[in-house]
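Tokens for chain A. Residues wanted.
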């Protein structure tokens, strides 16, 4: 995970300042709800961040319209990344909360071109609790959906 962590208050966070044009960025495109710009860290060439223009911290804080706009912008950017950099793979990465790997607390999605042995790592420890547990988890979520 990146070592940089932005603890600025809402409205003063680095992405809000970037959206406001107060700090420079290498902008790729923008629309009413989203802005796409080059990640300063560039895991691989063509690594872009898609952020909401409005300050919202996590996936749980953005509106359904913003969620739709972010993925539409990500797809548009991904097509451009494929055309311009031709990576053999691409990963979308979106982190929520410090434990989830979020380091800038303003909602954003990484469009990350991938190459063999590029050093990007995400451990994926399969635990396979079995069908009864899966059914119980699904029942909890169905109940939560009805509450929401
Ligand atoms: Zn912000």
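Reply:
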């Amino acid at each position: 995970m990146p070592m940089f962590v932005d603890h600025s208050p809402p409205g003063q966070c680095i992405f809000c300042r970037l959206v406001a044009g107060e700090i420079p960025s290498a902008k790729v495109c923008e629309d009413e709800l989203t802005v796409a710009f080059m990640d300063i860290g560039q895991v691989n060439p063509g690594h872009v961040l898609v952020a909401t223009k409005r300050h919202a911290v996590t996936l749980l804080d953005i509106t359904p319209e913003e969620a739709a706009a972010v993925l539409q912008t990500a797809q548009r950017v991904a097509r451009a990344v494929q055309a311009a950099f031709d990576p053999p793979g691409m990963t979308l990465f979106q982190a929520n909360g410090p434990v989830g790997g979020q380091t800038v607390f303003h909602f954003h999605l990484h469009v990350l071109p991938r190459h063999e042995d590029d050093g990007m790592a995400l451990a994926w420890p399969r635990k396979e609790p079995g069908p009864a547990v899966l059914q119980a988890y699904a029942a909890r979520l169905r109940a939560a959906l009805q509450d929401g």
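Residues 64-85 form the longest helix (22 residues). The chain has a mean pLDDT of 94.
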